[in-house]
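May I ask for a sample protein chain and its fold as tokens?
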Amino acid sequence: MENEYIEVVKKWLSDNDSVSSEELRANADAADAASADADADDAYAYAYAAAAAQAAGIAAAAAADADYWVTRYEELTNGK
């Protein structure tokens, strides 16, 4: 299950200059909204995506937090 919000965070994790802080904040807001609207089967995956996006959107210092939530998302979705 490819998740557009996780993909933005992963892009940022691999190259912090590839995504602007404005894009990160917008991604975090969109992921949070998607999490709230997700059906029960996808709720946890979207919640992890939202957490990763929020962590990335806060500051570059949050890279470890964002990486943690990307890892949790990938564990939940079996890396899909």
